[in-house]
Amino acid sequence: MTHDALVLRLLGPLEVVVDGQLVHPGGPKQRALLCWLALHPGEPASIATLIEAVWGPDAPAAAVRSLRTYVSNLRRLFGPAADVRGAQGTYCFVPRSVGTDVERFRATVEDASHVDDPQERRAILETALALWRGSFLADIDRLWVEEVSSILER
User: Distance between CA atoms of 27 and 55, rounded to whole angstroms?
Assistant: First the structure.
């Protein structure tokens, strides 16, 4: 199976759609890594930064080895639609054919800001709000999720 399209739904519990099929993105730590990477596409992140994002201050001694396993699993999950590249102690999420509901939400809200007619603007904003399926990353229990959520929910 080739993976041509990847959609990440973050506005609610995490959902990953590959080629139109909902797929299981792994356990809690791998899901946290995926979410952090998805919110920072194209930005190299140090292994220390990613360990902090996944485990917080209580990272186990085997965190680096586990992180590498999670990255490998994500590479398989993404196929050619996206990659997680490693170089000199960093990893970088490189999307090719990736969309997130966060991007769609922001773009739709931006579109609404350019509309003068109040009813049309309201309809566009209702479309943006319909993307929300619950609290932002409702199933990811990391402090940084709360910080990002507060920005999005303003």
Answer: 13
Side chain identity at residue 122, one-letter code = R
User: Which pair of structure tokens corresponds to residue 9?
Assistant: 């739904």
Q: What angle is formed at CA 18 by the lines to CA 32 and CA 74, rounded to 5 degrees?
A: 40
Q: Are the beta carbons of 91 and 84 closer than 8 angstroms?
A: yes
Tell me how far apart the alpha carbons of residues 53 and 43 are, in angstroms, rounded to a whole number: 14
pLDDT tens digits for range 114-144: 999 999 999 999 999 999 999 889 988 887 8
List alpha helices for the chain, DSSP H.
Answer: 28-38, 47-55, 63-78, 101-113, 118-129, 143-152
In contact, 46 and 121? CB cutoff 8 Å: no
pLDDT in tens, 12-63: 999 999 888 899 999 999 999 999 998 888 899 999 999 999 999 889 999 9
pLDDT score of 4: 61
